[in-house]
Specification:
Blueprint: H1 15-26, E1 75-82, H2 89-108, E2 116-123, H3 128-142, E3 146-149, H4 152-165, E4 169-170, E5 188-189, H5 195-209, E6 214-220, H6 224-237, E7 242-249, H7 253-263, E8 267-271, H8 277-286, E9 293-295, H9 303-309, E10 317-320, H10 334-342, H11 351-371, H12 379-386, E11 389-391, E12 402-405, E13 408-412, E14 414-421, E15 426-435
Parallel strand pairs: 1-2, 1-3, 4-5, 6-7, 6-8, 8-9
Antiparallel strand pairs: 10-14, 11-12, 12-13, 14-15
Amino acid sequence: MAHRKPGRRLVLPTAGLAAAALLLAACGSSSSTTPSESSSDTGAASSSSAASDQFQVNLNDCTDPAAPTQKVTDTWTIGYSAPLSGPVAGVVGLYFDGWKARIKAANDAGGINGVKIDVQYKDDAFTPDRAKTNATEFIQSDHVDSLITFGSGPVGAIADDQNAACVPLLYPSSSVAQYRDISQYPWTVQFLPNADLEAKYDVSLIQSKFPNGANVGIAENQTASGKGYSEAFQNAAKGTNVTVGTIAPSTDPNAAATALKAANPDVVYIAGITNDCGPDVQAMARVGFTPKLVIAPSNCADQTGWIAAGKAANGVIVPTWSKNPADPSLASDAGVKEYLSEVTTSDSGNTITIAGWIAADMTINTLQQAADSANGLTQESVIQAARNQNYPCPMFIDGITWLSTPTAMTGFSGFQTQVWNASKKMFDLEGNVIPIA
């Protein structure tokens, strides 16, 4: 892995003042420097903010220093390295139903100030090596304008090369603390919630339900994503009355369930990826183990797995940030109405499909904000826009926004607790939005 000199890419001569101003804006200021938060007819946001120039990158560090400033006037090309085959291909299919619908809606509405979005796909089968090869081709041969991928392993394989080339990696489905270091990875902006902040939410939730403390067992997926969630949870639990007593690799769900049963923790935390969360609770049921509480990360929101798990999944808690289009109380919600008008597949109610729509919507919003800036649509203006966001995506639960400043990458500003109801085959919301920003 190549190593860059600390701080060379990121130059913030007024970092302290910029960060303070943006944090105040995020708390409700109506200042003209408030990051992007207005919406268009297609659900994206355009901003009149002039604050995007507060994020500075050292273009002299780029492979081609002139490339990021070249204005795009015809087509913005996105290179997507995705697991079109392999263990999570089915889940990604759900995601793409939402992603592609949102991109199509934007193009049908005229694109980004007339610039259409073209997405090129390459299969990486959820393998880092193939993702790296794909990214190399996208950057060197296809000359794409931005990149996206799916999973922490692929992000790790891509991040060094795309930062060296100064090609934005926008909203990949990943959450690894290393790549949230803006000084080292200024061109990488991940989509999934900050694992450290999500883990703090998880531990706080456990403490609210077990005020006298609780013992936790972790079912740990052995991918970079699973290990990242596990490590974040363990770190968040340190110094609290929530103790981690057992970590069981979940490569074999039955073996993990047997180990967890033997340890008999109060709570099981599933440090997993989307397609193994349901099987983990099924395996615990098979061995006759029913913990008092099961918590899964926000990426385990695919209803398909929980439905397949049957009664065993009842009561599982998964944090969320997105609206449920099946909720009757949201029938007249503008964001939900637009979503349902564009996503006409049978999986429109699946949280993973909704996540795909949201990731695309955030991409469109970022491109629009960049296009409306003084420099127009360039790779540089796009990463500046991505680092200057206070965007209430129309499909976010009310009270949740996407927060990003030149010095801090928060992402989702809060979580809504949801509890799986096995009889209704859907999640029920519990309590109010819990801020994490």
